[in-house]
């Protein structure tokens, strides 16, 4: 029962992390304007995402424009596009596989060993999904930090970390932890293919056989008596 509850909690958290990864992919706040030096114009804030650039004004108006050429983009943005799309697909695949391997579902019938393997595969896929989110987010953050402290980069071109970067880190951590917990709920194997814990209860194969009960003595009260004439 506890094992089933851990599966449900980890699966719910993993789905939440996957939804956060989708939001990170769509948000344009990967890089935001840095107001340093003589660049004190705060009436406009420029956002740079992996799909578009946006200019947000303090009056509430916002204008966005998608990138014209993909090949003209920096390498970190190109890699972020590919990896985030891969993460979304792998997250969907992880949810489908994990649903089939959870104890509370009827997929795979009564084959508990098959369900355990499916649940393990779903947990590993969630971990890989978290890695696919972590790599582009960390790469973009490293590029932003290097350009910020590079004296050769003009002040107007310096950027800071946006909200999407922090949301991406949180999504990656949630996905990897949830996948690890989901994988740990699978049973451990012993020699001979018996489960030690998890889907099948403890094995009684090696338990000592109990001695049979000694025969009870037959008394006269246990059998009906017949009178003979």
UniProtKB/TrEMBL annotation:
It is found in: Cell junction, Tight junction; Cell membrane. Residues 206-229 are annotated as: Disordered. GO terms for cellular component: bicellular tight junction; plasma membrane. It holds the Pfam family PMP22_Claudin. The keyword Cell membrane applies. Belongs to the claudin family. GO terms for molecular function: structural molecule activity. InterPro entries: Claudin, PMP22/EMP/MP20/Claudin. The chain crosses the membrane at residues 7-27, 79-104, 116-139, 164-189. This is Claudin-7. Its main location: other. It is a multi-pass membrane protein. Keywords: Cell junction, Cell membrane, Membrane, Tight junction, Transmembrane, Transmembrane helix. The lineage of its organism: Eukaryota, Metazoa, Chordata, Craniata, Vertebrata.
């Amino acid at each position: 029962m506890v094992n089933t509850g851990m599966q449900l909690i980890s699966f719910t958290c993993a789905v939440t992390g996957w939804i956060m990864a989708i939001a990170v992919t769509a948000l344009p706040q990967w890089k935001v304007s840095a107001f340093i030096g003589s660049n004190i114009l705060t009436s406009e804030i420029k956002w740079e995402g992996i799909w578009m650039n946006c200019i947000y004004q303090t009056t509430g108006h916002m204008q966005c424009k998608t990138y014209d050429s993909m090949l003209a983009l920096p390498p970190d943005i190109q890699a972020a596009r590919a990896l985030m799309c891969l993460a979304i697909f792998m997250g969907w695949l992880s949810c489908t596989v994990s649903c089939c391997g959870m104890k509370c579902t009827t997929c795979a019938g009564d084959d508990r060993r098959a369900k355990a393997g499916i649940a393990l595969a779903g947990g590993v896929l969630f971990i890989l999904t978290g890695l696919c989110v972590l790599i582009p987010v960390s790469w973009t953050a490293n590029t932003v930090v290097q350009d910020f402290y590079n004296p050769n980069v003009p002040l107007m071109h310096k950027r800071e970390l946006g909200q999407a970067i922090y949301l991406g880190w949180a999504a990656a951590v949630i996905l990897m932890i949830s996948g690890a917990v989901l994988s740990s709920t699978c049973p451990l194997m012993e020699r001979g293919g018996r489960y030690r814990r998890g889907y099948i209860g403890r094995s009684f194969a090696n338990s000592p056989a109990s001695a049979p009960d000694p025969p009870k003595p037959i008394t006269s009260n246990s059998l009906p008596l017949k009178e003979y004439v």
